[in-house]
Each structure stands twice: as structure tokens, then as C-alpha cells.
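ESCALATION

Customer reports they have been waiting on this structure for their group meeting. Please prioritize. Original submission:
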Amino acid sequence: MTVWLNGEWLNDEAAGPGAGDRGFLLGDGLFETLRYSGGRVYRLEAHEQRLRASCQALDLTCPLDSVSLGPVIAELAGRAGLPEAAIRLTLTAGRGERGLARTGAHEPSCLITAAPLGARPASLSLASIGLQRSGSSIAARHKTLSYIDNVMARREARRAGADMALLLDTQGRLSGADCANLFWLRDGRLFTPALECAVLPGTARAAVIAAMDVEQGGFGPDSLAAAECVFVTNALMGAVAVSRIDGRPAGVGQALPAAVKAVLD
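Update from on-call: job pushed to the front of the queue and completed.
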């Protein structure tokens, strides 16, 4: 097969794996983002469990069957000279024949990269946008390579002058931020949208729920108006307070609960 790439005519081997890779062509694959710091991968077991579950859901061969992830990440960070790193594992269905169906034997492709871990922001602002998540969507429940909804949500939020997008599901219930799970504190209790609200099962989210009393359910956007504190969580940042939503102050200025920080730091 001959391909055209950035102004050059190449055979597909010279063009690289992307020329026929289903991840590049169709978004047929998954990714995991992990935090490496202090010589360890944060919540490694939880990430591995989610990766296995997502591989099963998408009918992909899990790389954990042949690779021990912890030592590979430690060596990768060491080779990159990064004592703290943002690790990304990208798994694709590999090269295959043209078309939607996976035909023949497919060899998955697994790429693991390390980048400097950015500083955690002191706070974040959110903007409500028009895009809604569907609870029946594979892309809402798993970290698939089909991430365009999240990309465009962030783009819309930035145009509104915010750091992240605040997303609802198709029933108008709170779902989360474009790359983070959502929590809020009200009357001394913690709340978060249930997985049924098109919520990605984040590893940091799971750690907070396992350690603390958190009420999960379907909540409307007005639930945040009475909150004492709003915050988001993800694997790289841990927990970060939300300072503003749609240009208005979020919460009543109460600091991020110390117990939450203790769970995730």
C-alpha cells in the first residue's frame, strides 16, 4: 500500500505504524494516564484493574498479560531523567485490513511515554457547555482513543474563559469535568455523580469513595449552588478546588477537605 504523508509519497512501512493502525484510523483503542513520583506509580493496581476491564469491554488483548507495568514505568522515568512524571499508556487494536470489522489476527500496539509532571494548580474554573455525555456511550465509560468530545468540550470552555468544561449527561444531570471527576461538599457531606450519569470510573474518584462517606446519585446543576466546596479529581492532579463556575464563585470559600488531600497525596 502506498500512502501520502505530509507531502511525501511513502510505502506504509516507511510511513510508520499509524498508516494502518486502527487506533490512528478509527480510534480503536484505550489509554491510561498515571502519576509517577517518589519512585512509585500512584494507585497502580487500580489503573491495572481498569485497564483490564476496558480491554475486556473493547475485546482487546491486555498488555498486562505480558508486561509488568510498574518496573517498565520506573525504568522509563529513569531513562527520561524524570523523578516525577506523567505516564501515558496507549493501546491500539493494531494494524488490520480496511473497514470497521476486525478481520484476521490483530497484534495490538502498546506505547508508553513519560512527560514532566506539571505543577498542580491552586484552583480551577469551570464553564457549562452544550455538549452532553451519554450514559450508553463506550467513550463515556472507558478511556478510549475516541476523545474528540473531551477535546471539543475543553475548547469551548477555554473560549468561555474557563480552565475546564463542566459536563451534564443527556438527562441533564451532573456528569463531571472534561478530564476529571466532580465532587462537592454540602452540609458537611460529600457528593459525586453516580457512574450511571455517564461518569468515567476514575482511579482518584474510587480512592476517595473507598476512604470516605460519599453519596453517589443523579444530581442537577443546582446542587452545586448550595455547596460549601467544589473540587475535581484525576490521576495526575489528585484533588483541586474549583474556584468559579460560569464566572461565579463556587462554594463559600471553604478549603479542600484535608481528608481528601490525605487520600490522594
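Sent to customer with the following note: The chain has a mean pLDDT of 91.
Escalation resolved.
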